[in-house]
Amino acid sequence: MAGKLLIPVDGYIEAQEAWHKMKKKHAAKKAEKKGAPHPQWDSVFKANLTNVPGYAYAVAHHGRLVAEGGVGFARTSLNAPPTPWTTSTRLNLASVSKCVTTVALLKLLAHRGVSINQPFYPFLQNQCPTAGPGVATVTFKNLLEMKSGMVVDGTLWTPNIWTFLSTYLAQGLVGTPGVTEAYSNTDFTILQALIAELVDPVQQGGDGITPYVTYVTDHVLKPMVIDPLIFNPIPDPPAIATDSYALSDNGPGVLWSQIPCVGCGGWIATAGELIKFMSGVRDHRVLDEHLTQRMFHEQLGCYEYDGIYGKYYDHNGWLHNGGSPDRGLNTGIIHLADGYDALLLVNAQFVDTIGLMIEAFEA
Fold first, then answer.
1. Is residue 5 part of a domain?
2. Which residue among 15, 24, 123, 172 is least enclosed by CB atoms within 10 Å?
3. Is residue 1 part of a domain?
4. Tell me, what's the pLDDT at 16?
């Protein structure tokens, strides 16, 4: 099924909203703070992920890899050749891509002396000349915190970034910027386009994709010693790519074609390379300490959770094809207390990656 747009526009968004509601329930049941954490990564994952084809995880403590594993299959026998999961298995990161975009944007704006409190539209006006009512008041920060007040949109695939955004921005506001919170992929497609425009003004952002990818690669991934041949938006060939499956289903998996809206859901990586990104954030390899703390505390491209050991910051990802049964994948990264960072990649639908990592950390 690679190459076909099968994801319902709203499915991606509904998945995220369901998780945020679930987090509130988790927080309400929070236990009293205890001593130093003694995480049980492997045992918690194995006990709770018995109905998925496979998964990979990685954990760093103060930037040093302390736990990792691959379990099950990235491709089952129905998608020959059967291939085991390892920390070198590539998977689409889905909405975890937004964290990558956030770091890139904060780096770029700081370098250019542009405040995140400035309206974004003047920087896109050349490519998108018509702004609907109120759009000109939306700031970079509003986009980063999912409070743009614009139409909720889950688009991941579009033949032309600029045509898509020109039509989208002409619609105007449906809420109040900075107040109305609504998860929308297109907030981060706009940020992708802004990066492209800012770094390639001569070509007015080019195709809205390549300049963005190049900037992220050169100014985020490489400084974090991440291999761009592995961490990039280009899917593996269908014969070897990781397939996505349904829970407890013996049917074949599905593949995902390349996603033009890279900034909101199109990066692909392995657990081994993604943990380098998380360690790079913690070690301030791209953003200084002030910007890093601002990103977390103001929940720019991430979400806050009150855990037993303090504040955690996370983002999950979810792709699904809307079929019957519904096949998909789940991803998640979390910046934990006491110097821990963790990630979990699963090639099946309906897995609470963030909740499982919190459970393992607080075990």
1. no
2. 24
3. no
4. 56
- Average pLDDT in the 56-79 region? 97
pLDDT at residue number 11 = 46
* Res 23 pLDDT > 80: no
Report the number of distinct structural domains present in the chain: 1
Domain boundaries, position 191:
11-361
Backbone phi and psi for residue 35, each to the nearest 5 degrees, phi listed first = -70, -155
In a domain, 4, yes or no: no
Check if the beta carbon of residue 85 is closer than 8 Å to that of residue 74: yes
CB-CB contact of 155 with 308 (8 Å): no
Task: Say whether pTM exceeds 0.90.
Answer: yes
